[in-house]
Amino acid sequence: MKERVMIFDSTLRDGEQTPGAKLNPMEKLEIARQLGRLNVDVIEAGFPISSPGEFRAVKEIAREVKGPIITALARTVKGDIDCAWESVKEAEKPRIHVFLAASDIHMEKKLRKDPETCLKEAVEAVRYAKTLTDDVEYSLEDATRAREEYILEVVEAVIDAGATVVNLPDTVGYAVPKEFGRLIRRIKTEVPNIERAIISVHCHNDLGLAVSNSLAAVQNGARQVECNINGIGERAGNAALEEIVLALKIRDDFFEYETGVETREIYRTSRLVSKLTGISIPINKAVIGINAFAHSSGIHQDGVLKDKSTYEIINAELIGGQAAQMVLTARSGRHAVRNQLETMNYQLGDEEFAKFYEKFLELADKKKEVYKEDLEAMLIDVSYAEPTYELEYLQTVSGTKTVPAAVVRLRKGEEILEKVSTGAGPIDAAYNSVDSITGIDLSLESYNLRAVTHGRDALGEVSVKLTHGDKNIIGRGMSTDIVEASVKAYIDGINKLIKMTGNFNNQNGYYNGISQQAAQQ
Ligand code: KIV
Ligand code: ZN
Fold first, then answer.
1. In a domain? residue 288
2. Could you tell me if the CB of 139 is within 6 A of ligand 1?
3. Which of 49, 96, 171, 200 most suits a substitution to test ligand 1, by most atoms within 8 Å of the C-beta?
4. 3-class state of residue 299 by DSSP
5. Which atom of ligand 1 is found nearest the CA of 99?
6. Minimum CA distance residue for ligand 1 atom 8
7. Would you say 56 and 66 are in contact if contact means Cβ atoms under 8 Å apart?
8. Is 84 left (phi over 0), alpha (psi -120 to 50) or beta?
């Protein structure tokens, strides 16, 4: 049986201290409800003395969110503690969280108080909070820069005063794992009454060590970890909740602890926090970044397709995310491209696939990343039957004080046919050139352009509806250049029309209405 590590989520308090991450009470409530679904052990809902809005938000969360302990932060002053209690007292499981500086730097330079005075204040504050509720947490701010003898003294005194949780914050992200682990071990072994309280840690990420420090603390006796969704928080943020939870879960062969977190809610919680705080998730963010389950290199993609375990240690479903996604690039091999098509339910024969793959490489050269939507559009673009006309060359001129013109060169079997035309714009000019090459009398009924994927290098897909006599044809084309996509769509329509209307050498010398002369040009 594994020992339980409590997950204390401070997204709504320390996380909200991230510059620019202000949440309104409704948004805080929405996140708190989701944290309830995530099944964290403690939700630190806010610092209620800071504003009436904050007080209301914490109160609402305490009333509504059942399951986790709901706590609110307070300095060691009566007014703060009363306010914190007032805000959480209706919770199913309320807690008051009191803090005061413990390092000489903070006590001297910030508080201008001596250590004895601070110790006395800490004890009085805990005793007072204890008159309001049983569950009282005490934090020794800046513990990792404090004198260890002083830490031991404060921890013992606040436990005697009634603290049920003692928190050792690495407030400025200064600790390193081995040293922090040793501190926790020392507290665990040298504080005589330590068995009456849970040791908690709260690590900031200034040196990128918040998660490692938290895990080192757990290995040395901490049984509560304070952390935030997406690692948001003051300055460089706090330990990321999803990283702590997944490290304990994925490496359960190494760590002998478990959490109660419902991991399948991680993805949703992460997206919600990002949406409401406006803080985007870095693409390479561990566990929940969009690249965390994407495989780019051909060798990796090939490996994952053969067996996921080759390059994936986390199953996306475990965090409620989408299945692994391949971002195809010019380095992706045939295997990866074919597999992606199959997952999209496209089965191409070998010859068709060979053509498709050539087109794919052309596109991947122009565009760094090829998405599933691009492949879909390419499937539409590639006509596997031999087309009558193929675009060989296109050049257009347009601008504010220029007459739009287009040079179009088409291949028809062995022949190369070229025309130059002007028009109302570059697309009109190019269509005029195509018309005079094919001689087919067409009218353009509708024209649609859409960006297939995102970004400035997105593929543009054009679809045109053409009419010839009583025939209607839809032509499609795509390219990163929208004029080229437009011309390809037009030519695609013409090729379909020619196929639809039968053999050129019929007895009338017509393609069902297309004059022989025009078709021969
Ligand atoms: O970083 C810190 O020290 C804190 C305390 C208030 C717990 O956020
Ligand atoms: Zn903090």
1. no
2. yes
3. 171
4. helix
5. 6
6. 14
7. no
8. alpha
Element at 494 (helix H, strand E): helix 482-500
CATH number at residue 472: 3.30.160.270
Number of domains the chain is built from: 3
For residues 162 and 33, membership in a common domain is answered with yes
Residue type, 233: G
141 lines ligand 1 (CB under 6 A): yes
Whether 177 and 41 share a structural domain: yes
Does the beta carbon of 103 sit less than 6 angstroms from any atom of ligand 1? no
Note whether 362 and 417 are same-domain residues: no
Residue where a domain stops, chosen among 380, 409, 438: 380
Flag whether 21 is in a domain: yes
Per-residue pLDDT tens for 6-48? 999 999 999 999 887 888 899 999 999 999 999 999 999 999 9
Side by side, the strands of the sheet bearing 405-412 are: 390-397, 405-412, 415-422
Contact 287/314 with Cβ under 8 angstroms?
A: yes
Per-residue pLDDT of 159-200, as tens digits, reads: 999 999 999 999 999 999 999 999 999 999 999 999 999 999
Range of the domain at 142: 3-277
**What is the Å distance from ligand 1's center to 208 Cα?**
17
Q: Does residue 402 sit in the same domain as residue 312? A: no
This prediction has a pTM of 0.69
Residue 236 and residue 167 in one domain: yes
Of residues 158, 91, 96, 84, the one with CA closest to residue 124? 158
Verify that 431 and 325 share a domain, yes or no. Answer: no
* Atom of ligand 1 minimally distant from the CA of 171: 1
Residue 24 maps to a domain: yes
- For residue 382, pLDDT over 60 is answered with no
Q: What is the Å distance from ligand 2's center to 443 Cα?
A: 68
> Taking residues 454-476, what's their average pLDDT?
79
Lowest mean pLDDT among 52-56, 372-376, 506-510: 506-510
Considering the domain architecture, whether residues 141 and 258 belong to the same structural domain is answered as yes
Do residues 242 and 212 share a domain?
Answer: yes
Least confident of 197-201, 438-442, 492-496: 492-496
Length of the chain: 521
